């Protein structure tokens, strides 16, 4: 654990690591205090595309933590950056929340439900058959299919709920098109995170609750990996994967020790 505590920077997932829905997880406040006290660089890197960094900062404030906006980076921001680099000034039909649409607007994209360049899907509670049907028609007419992240499920205080990977699956099946996912474990978002931190991979650790996104992202980016069992993954799941995290902890509070 000494090697882990000596890392200069920490990339932390949020859902299942920092909170479940509107419930702060044990040890999080102490972990954040430790990061600040020891002058660590840190970035909350979430595959959720629902909220902007400002909204995430405000959410943590409601939960009793003060973290400024520059410490957050989302799959919505990474998706918007990727699409702007692929087709500057392009257009999209979006199935998602304000965090995603605002990120696309700020990247110079316009919303288009007639002949968009892309159909972009993220987490949303405004999911409907009509939106799926329209997305299928657009993709079959040539729009490219993009998912903010590949997560099939996500943890909340009420239990596991469907996430982007599950929401986009009917569109993939009905069109025969395979979505391109920008969020973890895509190396794109990991490079963005390291650049935002201003840190080298050797100086950094990633902390997450999912083997199929957080841990594989760290493994493929050659960043130290920490799996916490406070979210999706359970210890019994580990033998199913061909790769393993360096550390397996009950929660982020275990990083700082006694």
Topology of this structure?
Blueprint: H1 2-5, E1 9-12, E2 19-20, E3 23-24, H2 28-37, E4 41-46, H3 53-62, E5 72-74, H4 75-86, E6 91-95, H5 98-106, E7 110-111, E8 118-121, H6 129-140, E9 144-147, E10 153-156, E11 159-162, H7 164-175, E12 180-181, H8 187-197, E13 204-208, H9 211-221, E14 224-228, E15 247-249, H10 253-256
Parallel strand pairs: 1-4, 1-13, 4-5, 6-7, 6-8, 8-9, 9-12, 13-14, 14-15
Antiparallel strand pairs: 2-3, 10-11
What does this structure look like?
By secondary structure, this protein is an alpha/beta fold. It is built from ten helices and 15 strands. It folds into two domains: 2-47 and 184-256, HAD superfamily/HAD-like (Rossmann fold), CATH 3.40.50.1000; 87-181, HAD superfamily/HAD-like (Rossmann fold, 3-Layer(aba) Sandwich). It has helices at residues 2-5, 28-37, 53-62, 75-86, 98-106, 129-140, 164-175, 187-197, 211-221, 253-256; strands spanning 9-12, 19-20, 23-24, 41-46, 72-74, 91-95, 110-111, 118-121, 144-147, 153-156, 159-162, 180-181, 204-208, 224-228, 247-249. The strands form four sheets. Strands 5-4-1-13-14-15 form a six-stranded parallel sheet. Strands 7-6-8-9-12 form a five-stranded parallel sheet, sandwiched between helices. Helix 4 packs parallel to helix 5 (98-106) and helix 6 (129-140) crosses helix 7 (164-175).
């Amino acid at each position: 654990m000494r090697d882990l505590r000596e890392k200069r920077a920490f990339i932390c997932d949020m859902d299942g690591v920092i909170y479940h829905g509107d419930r702060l997880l044990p040890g999080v406040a102490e972990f954040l205090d430790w990061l600040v006290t020891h002058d660590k660089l840190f970035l909350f890197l979430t595959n959720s595309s629902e909220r902007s960094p400002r909204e995430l900062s405000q959410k943590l404030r409601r939960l009793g933590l003060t973290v400024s906006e520059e410490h957050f980076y989302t799959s919505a921001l990474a998706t918007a950056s990727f699409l702007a680099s692929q087709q500057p000034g392009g257009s999209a039909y979006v199935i998602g929340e304000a965090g995603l649409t605002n990120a696309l607007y700020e990247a110079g994209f316009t919303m288009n439900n007639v002949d968009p360049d892309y159909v972009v899907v993220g987490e949303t509670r405004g999911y409907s058959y009509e939106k799926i049907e329209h997305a299928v028609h657009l993709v079959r007419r040539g729009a490219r299919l993009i998912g903010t992240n590949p997560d099939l499920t996500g943890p909340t205080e009420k239990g596991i709920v469907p996430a982007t990977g599950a929401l986009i699956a009917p569109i993939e099946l009905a069109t025969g098109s395979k979505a391109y996912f920008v969020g973890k474990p895509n190396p794109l978002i990991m490079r963005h995170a390291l650049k935002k931190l201003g840190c080298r991979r050797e100086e950094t650790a990633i902390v997450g609750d999912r083997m199929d996104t957080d841990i594989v992202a760290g493994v493929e980016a050659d960043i130290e990996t920490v799996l916490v069992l406070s979210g999706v993954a359970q210890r019994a799941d580990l033998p199913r994967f061909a790769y393993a995290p360096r550390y397996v902890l009950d929660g982020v509070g275990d990083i700082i020790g006694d």
